[in-house]
C-alpha cells in the first residue's frame, strides 16, 4: 500500500514538474499580446492576430 502511494506521489511530481517546465518554456519562447491575448513568438514585434505592438516586459 505504501509503495502504491509512493508511486502515485512520484507520478504526480513528474507531471507537475512537466507542467512547470512547459509553462517556463512557453514563457521564454512566447509573448502574449496585451490586446487580444494571442501567443506570439518572441522574435515578433507585432501581434500576428491584431498587429498590436508587443512590448518588452
Ligand atoms: Zn493581438
Features:
two-stranded antiparallel sheet; 11% strand; 49% helix
Question: Topology, please?
Answer:
Blueprint: H1 2-29, E1 30-32, E2 39-41
Antiparallel strand pairs: 1-2
DSSP strand content:
5-15%
How big is the Rg? 18 Å
- Quaternary class: single chain
Distance between the termini: 48 Å
Can you put this structure into words, describing what you see?
With 57 residues, the chain is mainly alpha-helical. The chain has one domain (2-41). 49% of the residues lie in helices and 11% in strands. The chain is built from one helix and two strands; from the N terminus they run αββ. It has one helix spanning 2-29; strands at residues 30-32, 39-41. A two-stranded antiparallel sheet has the order 1-2. Strand 1 and strand 2 (39-41) form a beta hairpin. The longest helix is centred in the N-terminal third of the chain and has 28 residues, at 2-29. The termini are far apart. The mean pLDDT is 92. Bound molecules: zinc ion (ZN). Zinc ion is lined by residues 33, 35-36, 38, 47, 49-50, 52.
Amino acid at each position: 500500500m505504501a509503495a502504491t502511494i509512493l508511486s502515485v506521489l512520484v507520478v504526480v511530481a513528474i507531471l507537475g514538474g512537466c507542467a512547470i517546465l512547459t509553462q517556463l518554456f512557453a514563457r521564454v519562447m512566447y509573448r502574449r499580446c496585451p490586446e487580444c491575448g494571442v501567443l506570439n513568438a518572441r522574435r515578433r514585434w507585432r501581434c500576428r492576430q491584431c498587429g498590436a505592438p508587443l512590448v518588452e516586459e
